[in-house]
Each structure stands twice: as C-alpha cells, then as structure tokens.
Amino acid sequence: MEDNEGSSSSSLGRSYVEFLGKLHYKLDYNFQTTELSVGVVECESVKAMDSGGTSDPYIRVCLAPDDRRKFETKVQEKTLNPKFNETFSFKISYSELIGKTLVFKLYDFDRFSASGNIGQVKVPLNSVDFGHSVDRWAEVQSPDSDPDKDASLGDVCFSLRYVPTAGKLTAIILEAKNLKKMDVTGLSDPYVKMSLFVGTKRVKKKKTTVKRKTLNPYYNESFTFDVRFEEIESVTLVVTVVDYDLIGSSDPIGQVTLGCRSTGNSLKHWSEMLANPRRPIAMWHTLRSIS
Asked: Whole-angstrom Cα distance, residue 104 to residue 25?
C-alpha cells in the first residue's frame, strides 16, 4: 500500500511539470573547416501564448557561455507546429567547442511588447559524438530563472516607412522601456542614435534628443534618410540606445541591426516595411549587447 501511495504522489508531482513543446534539430561539425553547422528543423506542440490559442514562435541559437554570436530563425506566425528548416554556422575550434553548451531559446513574437520566452533546449557539446551527423528531438524545458542577458538591456519601439519612388526611408523613434540602469542614481540619460550603412560604408547618422533621468523615455522623433531603391538590399540600419554622459564618453546600452541580411524580429520588421511601401510599420525590439 505504501509503495502505491508513493507512486501516486510521484506521478502527481510530475503532472505539474508543464509541457512546452518539442524541438527537432541537427548538428554537424566539419573538422577541416572548424565549423559547427546547427540546423533548426521544426517544433511540435509549442505552448500557446496568444489569446487565440496559438503562438508566433521563433528560435534564437547561441553558444554558452561567453559567446556573443547569436542567430535567429524567421518568425512562424499563428502555429504551434512551426517548420523552420534554417541552418546556422559557428566558426569554432574543436577544443573550444567541447567547452560550450548549445542553447536554443524558443520565443513567442509580439509586435507591441517584448517577445515571450517559452522555453529552451540546452545541449552540452562535450556529450555529443561529432564523428557523425546528429539528428535529434528534444523536449523544451522551462526558461532559466535568470533572465536573458540581452533582455535586461531593455526594449525600443520605432516605426519604419520606405517610399521607393522617392527613395526615402523614414524612421520614427517612438519610445523605449525597461532600459538598463547606467548611472549611480539608478537611472539613465538615454538617447537613440541611428547609423545608415550602404555595404560596409556608413553614409549617414542621426540621433534623438537626450531624455534625462529615465529608464522609460518617450521620443516620437522622426528622421528621414535618402535611400535609392536600387541600393535598398545593401542597406543596414543600426539603432543604438546610448546613455549620455556629460563628462567623458557616452556609454551604449544596446542596439538593433536591421536590413536584408538581419535575422529574426529585425528581418521581419525590415521585410514588412519593404512589403508595405509608404506605410509606417511599428515594432518593439529587444536591445542586443554590442560586440
């Protein structure tokens, strides 16, 4: 009788572990080129995060600890069984590789607020046999209790509008929230700086006014760049939130990089702007640490 009661109690405890979904991934290491290829194939039965009973999932891939390289899949809208079929490559020696953990972070995209962290899959690479290709399913686990390092930097909201016939790209910096505390007072003096690159050459930079002593600044400031239609595919827009310092150099808090070669939420915003000429497209972005 005691054994049965113990078994029942154990089952009850396990029933409280929420099922968040499953991830299908592939790994391959090329010893000649020292490159790790990471394939994000698909997910199944992802936790519903939206009121309509669906999610807009995407996955961020990184190597932990202490690796700033991060990749994001495209957002798959309104599905609990997203198909990604995207591959990312990390250039890393085998001796470094076996000291890393590959982390897949599953998010629910939200246009008007920070993306929701659904869960994660961690793969200690010292436990992987790279003598052959790896093709696995893994159950998504709860997110770490510590927030994502980048999430602690804050979020910025801005709209983008492109008019191909006029060759004008307009960015309206709307607001930021939950910015990292940069001053001894526990606040910041943030402004937003934008740099426009064509290829690798910076051709223009603009910045907002400084908002004093706040972690939740409101700007609503508009800026226009001249961008010819024939060069739009080679354009990169870097949006950086900076803490102004009257004495000494100002400190960057975090940034967002947008363009045809960006990934994840940034690519989604850029693509929607191009697909809807003359229409402002607003979106929230989580700030990333600056490499």
From this structure: 9
Percentage of residues of the chain with pLDDT beyond 70:
88
Average pLDDT of the segment spanning 2-29: 63
Query: Apex CA 217: angle with CA 211 and CA 218, to 5°?
Result: 100
- 228-237: pLDDT as tens digits: 999 999 999 9
Which residues have a Cβ under 8 Å from the Cβ of 226 and sit 6 or more positions away?
A: 167, 168, 169, 204
Q: Are 177 and 155 in contact (CB under 8 A)?
A: yes
Distance CA 92, CA 35 (A): 6
Instruction: Say which residue the tokens 């609503």 belong to.
Output: 220
CB 206 within 8 A of CB 194: yes
- The SS3 of residue 30 is strand
Dihedral of the alpha carbons of 95, 129, 57, 283, in degrees to the nearest 10: 10
Q: Is the pLDDT of residue 88 over 70?
A: yes
CA distance 32 to 209: 51
One-letter amino acid at 44 equals E
Would you state the pLDDT for residue 133?
Answer: 94
What is the rounded (10 degree) CA torsion for 161, 171, 286, 109? Answer: -10
Confidence at residue 10, expressed as pLDDT on a 0 to 100 scale: 37
